[in-house]
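Why do we bother with holo predictions? Because pocket geometry can differ from the apo form. Keep that in mind while you read this record for 4'-deoxy-4'-aminopyridoxal-5'-phosphate.
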Amino acid sequence: MSHVIYKTIDSRPAWASGGSGAWLEDRDGRRYLDTCGGVGVSSLGHRHPRIAEAMERAARDLTWAHAGAFTTAPAEELAQTLAGRSGGLSHAQFLSGGSEAMELALKIAYQYHAERGDRGRQLVISRRQSYHGSTLAMLAISGNVQRRSVFEPLLGRAEFVSPCYEYRDRLPTESVEDYVDRLGAELEAKILEVGAENVAAFTAETVVGSTSGAVPAVPGYFRKVREICRRHGLLLVLDEVMAGLGRTGQHFAYLDDAVTPDIVAVGKGLAAGYAPISAVLVSPEIHEALGAGSGVLQNGQTNVNHSFACAVALEVQRTIHDEGLLDNVRTRGEQLRQSLVKRFSDSPAVGDVRGRGLFVGVELVRPDDGRTPLDGGGRLAAAIKREGLARGVLLYPGYGTVDGEAGNHVLFAPPFVSTPDDIDDMVTRLGEVLDVCLAEATH
Ligand code: PMP
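The structure, written out:
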């Protein structure tokens, strides 16, 4: 009997014991091709030798000193590295997971307004079909209905507007500019409805991750949002826990949208699974405002700026630079999207292939009309995952893609070190899995 609480309570997951590059291995020696870095985490793949060596060195150094009294070289260097790549943000604090980073991002937004005497700004406007973390405060601002589920009665107030979801929501008669204008008008109407003086921040995933399957915004959307936020005094808080740190082919996904937020949260890829660490980065204005006000960040957690975790993350970020992995993300991402489109060109059940870099979504649709959302639900998602594991491929399927209920997708977020053969293999195996699962689901 196991004493571990598993995600699926009554079935034991595979027993991971090794791996290399884009491959994982279980204790019986079976190999699994990792198309999703688990959940967009393993950007350097598994058992990267350079990171193992850096971890050994870091373990011999001081591994932790309380951030209330000390700083350390790894924390300083990591903050400097990230700020330098961020396109204008200046200071970072490190935490343990993405939910914590997003929660601190919003605490900082509230505190920023309060320090400046703007205490009425207590609301957050978020987007439907979004996920910002598993704590109660982050679920409250997440549109993801499945994850809110039984906790709904415990969740505080948040306001929601539409996501930017071109495949489903841009009208056939609408240009991209018109669509951006419509979404901008909706956001502005929401701000005016609740009163700009009551809103602290607008928050969004720069590229929507698990909820809808790698949905980037159309060109111009975030510039419009940035302008509206500025005009009404809201902070723009971007959630790049999944999309950030190279996943889209840029150190920060928003760089492709030609904006810089006031605050950004990053996580998963920061140490690529080699240490549990996340970060919040803020603009110089926010940092100065906190300093000029109370001078104290109103948040304290035991593992803030954890020296060992920062050292590991620093080595991961340096490796991305030294191995030229952003180029690989762009090239392999292009290969992945093109191969998926080619493989499924005769398959009406694949309605859309989208994404940026190695962050790619495949939306499944009803094969009879090639457009209506598939309603395979959690059963189809579970079948895809199960069939994948049986065929030696780790897949990340999701459901409720369109509105929390309808729609199915598969999310690709493979390691940045994936080879051309790995990518071909991923597409071939997904094809085999979908052939089996869709035949069952659509009969
Ligand atoms: N935001 C986004 C966009 C995420 O994808 C996730 C994790 N799936 C989180 C926040 C929460 O991160 P964590 O699970 O590390 O707490």
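The first strand starts at residue 16 and ends at 20.
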